[in-house]
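Z., the sequence and structure:
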Amino acid sequence: MQKKVSFNELINSEKPVLVDFYADWCGPCQAMSPILKEVAGNLKDKASIIKIDVDKNQAVSMKYGVRGIPTFILFQNGEVKWRHSGMTSAFQLEKIINENSKTTST
């Protein structure tokens, strides 16, 4: 059984963490779901992708200034490396994650 990890522990990782701020009622958020699955499959262990429901996690959403959804924020070592609001392509997400994972590759 995996140990539960807090949001702060996740985003302070050396491995890039892409956070998808979404809501169940959001059409564009639902459309991004298969794209995120594709990206996760292609990147394997290079990065983590987590989803944060803005309705259930309003404090985190407010802390990072999420005003529109979907909003994607890439964290590494606790720093915001990239952010984007609205739909985006798998290619764009993979490019951004790969650029940031290179800095920690051995």
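The two ends are 28 Å apart (CA to CA). Residues 27-43 form the longest helix (17 residues).

Let me know what you think.
H.
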